[in-house]
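About this split. The held-out portion is used to measure sequence recovery: a designer receives only the structure tokens and must propose an amino acid at every position. Recovery is the fraction of positions where the proposal matches the reference. Here is one held-out target exactly as it appears in the evaluation file.
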């Protein structure tokens, strides 16, 4: 039986595993599926629930995670090639809401690359739930603020990009705050705002320089900002050179890339030395 642990969340299957790779914000583990299964079950749980309120968000609704939950991922077969990508079906988000205020959104999923199966786990966001009074309105507004610089990239807005999860996160925090002496919803003035801090990328002949804004393992896609111009480019895992079994890009890291002519898409990309 395989098991993958990352940032307090674990995921296990009934299959043997062969290899895994854990990076700073994401990781994967290959599982050995020897039959043409129509579903693969991922058992997802939290390692230590003390002082943490874990819940899952699926279909726009949050549910408290007591023990483990099972994500059953359908598998479609194109002859001998397995396919798992189905929006909203092949992944689940676990939100770890801490008593002290911060929260972490960890996304778990099942992907295929070159006919092989991989369990994936990724830190989608890490931040604070904050509150502030709206001037003249006398009401309280809530804002989600990143605590990790990799999520402070230009244009990143958790509440709008992941709207159902953002709404459920705030609702859960408010409900818990009325029944427990929690400080999980902080005043905006009390929170230290982190800044996007991209690395310097040296010039390399024949290549454009860029910084990875984000990369999602489930979709295998991300975005690169070109150094100097601020132009944004779409990137797909098939364009990543020198990649491993599961090609990925780490956020807020430097890259060299070649754009497709006339399009804001990447033709090829590699990590900067």
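Reference sequence for scoring:
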């Amino acid at each position: 039986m395989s098991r993958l642990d990352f940032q307090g969340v674990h995921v296990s299957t009934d299959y043997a595993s062969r290899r895994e790779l854990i990076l700073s914000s994401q990781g994967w583990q290959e599982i050995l599926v020897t039959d043409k299964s129509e579903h693969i079950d991922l058992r997802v749980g939290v390692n230590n629930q003390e002082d943490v309120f874990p819940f899952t968000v699926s279909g726009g609704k949050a549910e408290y995670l007591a023990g483990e939950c099972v994500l059953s991922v359908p598998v479609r077969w194109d002859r001998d090639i397995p396919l798992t990508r189905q929006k909203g079906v092949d992944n689940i988000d676990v939100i770890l809401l801490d008593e002290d205020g911060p929260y972490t959104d960890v996304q778990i999923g099942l992907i295929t690359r070159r006919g092989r199966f991989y369990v994936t786990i990724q830190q989608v966001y890490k931040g604070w739930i904050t509150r502030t009074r709206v001037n003249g309105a006398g009401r309280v507004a809530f804002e989600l603020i990143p605590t990790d610089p990799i999520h402070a990239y230009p244009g990143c807005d958790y509440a709008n990009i992941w709207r159902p999860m953002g709404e459920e996160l705030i609702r859960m925090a408010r409900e818990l705050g009325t029944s427990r002496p929690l400080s999980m919803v902080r005043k905006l003035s009390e929170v230290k705002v982190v800044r996007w801090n991209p690395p310097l990328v040296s010039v390399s002949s024949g290549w454009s320089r860029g910084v990875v804004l984000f990369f999602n393992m489930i979709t295998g896609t991300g975005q690169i900002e070109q150094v100097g111009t601020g132009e944004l480019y779409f990137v797909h895992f098939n364009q990543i050179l020198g990649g491993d079994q599961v090609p990925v890009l780490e956020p807020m890291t430097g890259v060299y890339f070649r754009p497709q002519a006339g399009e804001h898409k990447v033709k090829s990309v590699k990590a900067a030395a």
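Annotator remark: Residues 161 and 184 are 22 Å apart (CA to CA).
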